[in-house]
Amino acid sequence: MKERITFIHSSESDRDARSLTVSKTSVQIKALKASREERLTLSAHELPQEIWQALRQCHQLHLKWVSDLPYHPPPPFVSRAAPGLHLFLTPHLDRSPDVLRPLLRKVFGYGKSFDFGQNVLIEIPTNQSHHPSPPIYHYHDFLPSLRDFVIYLQKKICLDQDDECSTAAKRLANAAYVDMDYDAGSREYIITSFHHESPDLGGWNEEIKCRRNSEKTEVGLFTYRQALEPQELSFEGYLTVIGEDKKPRPTRFSFPSRHHPVPLASGSGFLTTLPKPTGLHPTLRLTFPHPISPPGHGCALHTYLTLPSSLFVDEYQLSSPNFLAANNLRGVRALSGETDLEAPAWVTRKWGSTMLLEVAHRDRHQARLETAESQWHVDIPLHLRYLPPAAGGATGVDLPWPIVFWACPAEEGSDVSGNPFDRINLGYEVLFGPSTTFYHFRPQPKEPRRSLVEQLQVPVMDLPASRWVESGTVGVIILGALWVMWKLLRVSLNDWRSSKKTIPPRKVL
């Protein structure tokens, strides 16, 4: 077991080594206001048997859970994914992904079906010229909480260990995101969690100890610095290895990174809304409150959507140049998943669909002509499927906010594999070249704690009322059939009577 805890802060006073108290077995932190990343690396023999047996069926497995509450991470933690639980899976050639279903239900909650058989998963259309690898399958489910996952860790992982393990597991409930990664090549299972701030107003106050059976525990306290190269990130601060260092070691390091925040001068936030009335053909509107400009030459603005199966996009509608121009769109760059235009929701098999869409933006000349208060709107047309009946005559559809970023070509020969904080398998980065640089926009809802998941109320047939409809329909059919039979009988009787009148009486000889 290896553990790495990293604090990133912006306050100059917190950068002083006196904020850290180092002893032989622990590091004491007091009133530290900073973002926090924890990374725990486990080997195969340290995992519960049921988890290891499931992982053996996979070549690669990446689980990512993202909170639906807005958060503002500092570099190098700016990469984003849609709220909910994501599963990126590359199974062995002769194995079925169905073997993971019972385990996921047990780990993340029995209330979820986690139906992700071969027909439910969608295949990510990777750029094979840049990413020659086995197919990657994607599954998404909006999971609002990690409560069941925390309980599972406390019962199966912590067991009879000290309270530090149980406290760390409980801390995951307040995380902004949690990543779980497994690669058959390394046979290591890595759990990474990120908190953009302490849940306590006073900051982080705790004594970090070396866990039982831990080979190495590192604690870093760093401040972001302006790097010399535009594609690099630079940090300075202090690093401590518990049990080896007697005091914090001053450290400064830089590394190339594929994920960066959008510069403030370029407009760094966006708002997602669904203009009313939504109807059965809602419009997803992205609003950029300031003129936006690309951070470099050759950069293109993109948005990546994660849609449930009850919503879909019409790729033929999005192929019209006039329609694209009217809605400030450039075109669909990748689309996978459930795209049938006619199927109702109860016929579809896949969990949903994903779409990479290139978005139009102001050029520099337009930005100079418009005022700083002007807004830039991008409208993405969506369509609802017919949904099953439900009690109350309406059902909710969860729509996560999309990811918005600039994708910029990297310099020839650049390598971003040396980033110790890099996040991979986010769904969209494999659609670009391996050295592409992403500049991420921050989601900025109107209320600071508002959910980043929009909910549509869709009218459907009221299930209790449908019984009256069924009874009434049957009654009308029966009455209609009786009426038709009565009409036919009347016609037959009239014909019979008419035939009797027209028959002449027989003469008697």
Q: Average pLDDT, to the nearest integer?
A: 85
- Record field, number of beta strands: 28
- Beta percentage is 25-35%
Helix/strand-derived category reads alpha+beta
Q: State the distance separating the first and last CA atoms.
A: 123 Å
- Outline: elongated
Report what the structure shows.
The protein is of the alpha+beta class and 509 residues long. The chain is 17% helix and 35% strand. The chain has helices at 49-55, 101-108, 147-158, 163-171, 321-326, 364-369, 463-502; strands spanning 2-9, 20-22, 26-32, 35-43, 58-66, 84-91, 122-123, 137-141, 177-183, 188-195, 204-209, 216-225, 232-241, 249-256, 259-261, 269-273, 283-288, 300-308, 311-312, 329-337, 352-359, 376-381, 383-384, 394-400, 403-408, 437-440, 442-443, 453-459. A hairpin with a 3-residue loop joins strand 2 (20-22) and strand 3 (26-32).
Task: Briefly summarize what is shown.
Helices cover 17% and strands 35% of the residues. It is an alpha+beta fold. Strand 2 and strand 3 (26-32) form a beta hairpin.
